[in-house]
Amino acid sequence: MSMQFQELFAYTPDWILESIPKLSLVNLMSCLKNSVGDFYVANPGTSVFLCVFMLYYVYYLKNVVKKPELVCSNETFRQFLIENCPIIDEEFKPTVWCSSHHGQTLLSNTIRMAIVPIPQYRREFVPVDDDVPPKPGQNREFNMSKSKNSTVTLDWYEGPGPTIQLPDGQKFYAELLEKYNVEDFVYSPKISEDDGKPIAVFYPGLVGDSQTEYVRTAVIMANSLGYKTCVFNNRSRGGLLLKTPRLYCAANYDDLEASLQHIKMTHPNSKIVAIGISLGGIVLCRYLAERGDDALVDAAMLVSVCFDFRAGLASLTEPGFNSMLNLHLTKSLIRLVEENREILEKTGKYDIDEIIASKNLAQFDERFTHKMWNYSSVEEYHEDASNKNRIHKIRKPTLCINAADDIFCPYSALPLKQIQDNPKCAMLVTARGGHIGWMDTNLAILKPALFYLERLIVQFLEAVKNKTSDEILNNSKFKQAIFD
């Protein structure tokens, strides 16, 4: 008997030892080998499954788990991000059973929808221009005197409590009008509410609003950090219908700018951090580039942004999941047109039945979007909506995050060189993550900070809290560390 077994049995009562056969270590190993072998022989399916899983897990560790790529030429800004957002310097580990971009895109948001609490908001109406700019791609500074009917909304999350529950769909529209007195809305900034707390404002995606699953978690977490938190709802989103025949598009930031002007007017002492997600990020990116130093934010984050429309739409036409998601988004936009059919038909610009028959986003833009915004062709609209060649004009500290496998913006379409050439910008690129996915192995389903994306947003918001743009980009602490 080996020395290890002798030591073990030295502490074993005699009555137990008497009942155990005296086995040699060789006999014991032989017995275990035969038992395990018998198990696999009796369960061939389990054997195959375990072998396949082990092979996949080796592949997963070698090819899937990777450290993100951080593109940033400004060493001070880079060190600021790494120091304050440690998740940037860690490997991104997609959920083992859901590492594909299809699964990341679909299941991550399904899980968010199922388990994240539904926030209650206080709704604020912001007047915006009634008509569409006469020239394509034209963005105008908002003139309140020209607005008679149109509004967008800001939904403010003030923590758990008996605040107003947002309406669910159009059936509550009449009740909403009565409750908020929208018809007789008067613009009245409430300066008294300004307490100097930082503000985080979220701009959702193409068909998103304040109750969209990927917004809800971030809103709750931002509030817990001490931010005043609000979500921007585009025209005809969040339970409202159009009052004038104008929707929204990727190439116009008028409404976004009006919302920021309103926030700054009512909270002049607050720092503003803007987070744009998908379409919201596209519009925010355009605003940051066009307004430069005059942009009314102190820092920004762009999430899953398509920087090249032609590349993104080409990817969305690929057979399978890409085309299915394309169709799903198209149908969501068609519902907006159907809900506002009466007011849109009065313009005489559109064939509504033809729009409703659209099978993909490119067709929808061809039959509707480019006409609304006075472009000569859909190609002109898509080119104007692409921000890849505007990155150099951004003057506020901006962190972008994209996944290399995002079907809306493939890796080849990411503006990495443009980001590298702008010391105000940084881009984090993960190998996996899909579109607004980033579901990772930290599947803490009982906590609101679920996935990699939410944790990054929380760390970024904490890092830039109450800091000016100059303090973020030119932090003396990190400059000293670099020169040392």
From TrEMBL:
Keywords: Hydrolase, Membrane, Transmembrane, Transmembrane helix. It comes from the Eukaryota. GO terms for biological process: medium-chain fatty acid biosynthetic process; medium-chain fatty acid catabolic process. Residues 253-413 form the Serine aminopeptidase S33 domain. One of its GO terms (molecular function) is monoacylglycerol lipase activity. It holds the Pfam family Hydrolase_4. Gene3D superfamilies: alpha/beta hydrolase (3.40.50.1820). Belongs to the AB hydrolase superfamily. AB hydrolase 4 family. This is Abhydrolase domain-containing protein 3. It comes from Aceria tosichella (wheat curl mite).
